[in-house]
C-alpha cells in the first residue's frame, strides 16, 4: 500500500528523471542495521535510490548483503570524542559528502548527525528530516554536556524541514523550550518493529524457574547494575528464578561496565551472560519477563518492543521512552528509576503470577505492539514525510 501510494504521487514526474536519492545518516552502521533496515527496504521498494552514511563497523556487511543501498563511511565521526577539533572535522566531512552525493532528502538519526549533520545539510543545500531517538547520556546529565547539546539542537533544527520524536516527553520538552518549532515537530511512536519477524514463539526447553531477561548494551544507565543487585537480593532470599543478560560492553561509551565486572557477576552465579546475539528471538522466547530498569534518556527502547511483539510481559522504569511501552498491570509493571528494592519486589510479584496471568499480559503486549509500534504504522509516515519534503523542494 505504501509503495502504491508513492508511485501514484510520482505519476506527475517525468519518467526519464532519475529516482529521488535519499540519504540515511547515523553515528554507526549498527544503528542503521538494527533500527532502520525496514525503512531502507521500504524506501527501495518505493523506488528511491538509498545511500547510507555512518561510521564503519561490522554491520556494514549486513547492510550491503540485505539491501541495494550504497554505504559510504564517515571517517571523522567519533562517538567517543567530545573535542571541538574532532567535531569540526566531522562537520566539514559530512558537508563535503552531502555536497558530493547531492541527496534530494537527508534523514538524520542519533545526536551528532542530528546536530552537526543538519548544519552541514543546510550549507550544502540539502533538505533534511531529523529523528530524535532519545537524548542518551546528554539527556541524563544536568551539566555542560546537556547545555551544549541542547544549544546545538536549537541551532540545527532551525534548518530541518521536519523533526520526528519517538515519545511524547521529548516532543513536549523540545517544543516547550523552543528548541524546535512546534509546526515542524511530530510524534512517530518508536522506531517501528517487524511484527512478522518478532512473532510469538513457544518456549523451547522451558525452565522450571521464572526467567528474567535483560537486553541492552551493558551501560550503567541502562540499569544493568540495578538488575544484577536485584538478582543478588532475590537469590539471597532463595527465590526460584534465573537472571539472564543479553548484550555486550561498549568501549565507545563512558558509562559502560567493565568486562572484569561482568565476569565477576557470572563467576558469582548471579547472572547468566548470553553475550551478543545477531538473532535475539530465541533468548526472548525462552524468558518469562523482559526487564529493562533504564534511567537512560531513551527514545523508545527497541529491546522492549521486540519482547512485546513476542508476547512477553515487561518490567521497566517510569522513565522517558520506557513508560510509553507499559500499561501498568496490563502488559507489565513500571518501577521507579535506580530503585533496586522496588525492582526486586516487582520481580517477586511477577513470579507469583499464574501462567494464565502471564500469558494474558503477553497478549496485551502483542496487542500494543500491533496497534502502536508496528512497521505498518511507522513506515508509511516516513514515506509521506519524505514525499512532502520532496514536493516542497
Describe the protein's topology.
Blueprint: H1 2-9, E1 21-28, H2 29-35, H3 37-45, E2 49-55, H4 59-66, E3 70-73, H5 84-101, E4 105-109, H6 111-124, E5 128-132, E6 134-135, H7 136-140, H8 144-156, E7 162-165, H9 168-176, E8 185-187, E9 210-215, H10 224-236, E10 241-246, H11 259-267, E11 272-275, H12 281-285, E12 289-292, E13 297-298, H13 302-309, E14 314-317, E15 332-335, H14 340-351, H15 355-373, H16 375-392
Parallel strand pairs: 1-2, 1-4, 2-3, 4-5, 5-7, 7-8, 9-10, 9-12, 10-11, 12-14, 14-15
Question: Which tags fit this structure?
Answer:
single chain, 393 residues, alpha/beta, Rossmann fold, 16 helices, globular
Write structural notes for this entry.
The strands form 2 sheets. Strands 3-2-1-4-5-7-8 form a 7-stranded parallel beta sheet, with helices on both faces. Helix content is 45%, strand content 17%. With 393 residues, it is α/β, with parallel strands linked by helices. α3 (37-45) crosses α16 (375-392), α6 packs parallel to α8 (144-156) and α13 (302-309) packs across α15. The protein is built from 16 helices and 15 strands. The radius of gyration is 21 Å and the shape is globular. The protein has helices at 2-9, 29-35, 37-45, 59-66, 84-101, 111-124, 136-140, 144-156, 168-176, 224-236, 259-267, 281-285, 302-309, 340-351, 355-373, 375-392; strands at residues 21-28, 49-55, 70-73, 105-109, 128-132, 134-135, 162-165, 185-187, 210-215, 241-246, 272-275, 289-292, 297-298, 314-317, 332-335. It folds into 2 domains: 2-191 and 375-392, Rossmann fold, CATH 3.40.50; 210-373, Glycogen Phosphorylase B (Rossmann fold), CATH 3.40.50. Mean pLDDT is 92; it is low at 1-13.
Amino acid at each position: 500500500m505504501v509503495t502504491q501510494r508513492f508511485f501514484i504521487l510520482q505519476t506527475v514526474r517525468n519518467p526519464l528523471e532519475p529516482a529521488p536519492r535519499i540519504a540515511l545518516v547515523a553515528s554507526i552502521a549498527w544503528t542503521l542495521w538494527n533500527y532502520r533496515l525496514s525503512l531502507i527496504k521500504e524506501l527501495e521498494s518505493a523506488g528511491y535510490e538509498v545511500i547510507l552514511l555512518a561510521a564503519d563497523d561490522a554491520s556494514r556487511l549486513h547492510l550491503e548483503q540485505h539491501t541495494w543501498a550504497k554505504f559510504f563511511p564517515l571517517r571523522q565521526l567519533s562517538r567517543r570524542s567530545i573535542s571541538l577539533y574532532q567535531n569540526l572535522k566531522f562537520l566539514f566531512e559530512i558537508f563535503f559528502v552531502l555536497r558530493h552525493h547531492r541527496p534530494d532528502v537527508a534523514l538524520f538519526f542519533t545526536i551528532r548527525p542530528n546536530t552537526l549533520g543538519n548544519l552541514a545539510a543546510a550549507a550544502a543545500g540539502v533538505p533534511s528530516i531529523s529523528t530524535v531517538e532519545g537524548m542518551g547520556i546528554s539527556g541524563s546529565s544536568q551539566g555542560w554536556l546537556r547545555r551544549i547539546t541542547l544549544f546545538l539542537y536549537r541551532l540545527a533544527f532551525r534548518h530541518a524541514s521536519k523533526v520526528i520524536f519517538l515519545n511524547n516527553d521529548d516532543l513536549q520538552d523540545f517544543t516547550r523550550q523552543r528548541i524546535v518549532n512546534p509546526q515542524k515537530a511530530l510524534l512517530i511512536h518508536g522506531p517501528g518493529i517487524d511484527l512478522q519477524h518478532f512473532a510469538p514463539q513457544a518456549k523451547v526447553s522451558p525452565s522450571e524457574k521464572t526467567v528474567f531477561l535483560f537486553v541492552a548494551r551493558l551501560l550503567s544507565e541502562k540499569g544493568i547494575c540495578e538488575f544484577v543487585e536485584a538478582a543478588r537480593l532475590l537469590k539471597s532470599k532463595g527465590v526460584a528464578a534465573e537472571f539472564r543478560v543479553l548484550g555486550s560492553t561498549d568501549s565507545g561509551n563512558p558509562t559502560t561496565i567493565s568486562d572484569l565486572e561482568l565476569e565477576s557477576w557470572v563467576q558469582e552465579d548471579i547472572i547468566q551472560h548470553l553475550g551478543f546475539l545477531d538473532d535475539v528471538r530465541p533468548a526472548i522466547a525462552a524468558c518469562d519477563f523482559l526487564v529493562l530498569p533504564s534511567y537512560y534518556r531513551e527514545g523508545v527502547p527497541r529491546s522492549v518492543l521486540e519482547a512485546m511483539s513476542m508476547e512477553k510481559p515487561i518490567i521497566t522504569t517510569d522513565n522517558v521512552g520506557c513508560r510509553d511501552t507499559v500499561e501498568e498491570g496490563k502488559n507489565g509493571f513500571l518501577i521507579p528509576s535506580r530503585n533496586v528494592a522496588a525492582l526486586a519486589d516487582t520481580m517477586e510479584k511477577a513470579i507469583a503470577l499464574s501462567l494464565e496471568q502471564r500469558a494474558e499480559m503477553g497478549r496485551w503486549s502483542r496487542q500494543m505492539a500491533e496497534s502502536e509500534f508496528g512497521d505498518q504504522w511507522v513506515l508509511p509516515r516516513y514515506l509521506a514525510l519524505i514525499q512532502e519534503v520532496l514536493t516542497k523542494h
